[in-house]
Amino acid sequence: MGKTVATNRKARHDYSIEDSFEAGIVLTGTEIKSVRAGSVNLQDAYARIERGECWLVGARIAPWAGGNRNNHEPMRDRKLLLHRLQIDQLVGRTKAKGLTMVPLSMYFNDRGKAKIQVGLVKGKKHYDHRRDIADRQSKRDMEREVADAMRGR
Which one of 14, 20, 31, 117 is CB 3.0 to 4.6 Å from 27, fit for a cystine? Predict the structure, then answer.
């Protein structure tokens, strides 16, 4: 993974991530310039499969500052590039297990191509959030105890 442009922190908080995969994304000229400038918001975005193709819905790529009247639409649906076998597997997993596809991050790979990391996620319940908070707190407490013990030697 190369330079990360945007991450979806809300997705990691609201969902438990079952699996993730990498997908290419179809962008226009002004969109790729905005992405390189870091003007991307993945919050509230999701992916769906429609007529055998995978689409990214709700992602906002701000209009490019140097653009003219032919600038791109910020909230348009964008096609994700996946192999047919991957799409078929995703259809099966989302239908059978009730999973959702949510973008986790957008980045440039080593070859300079824009990629999206999409996660297969399941929504967390309130008690899952509380358990995560309790686990983080207990981990911090243990690390603090270990650090205190190491200093006290």
Answer: 31
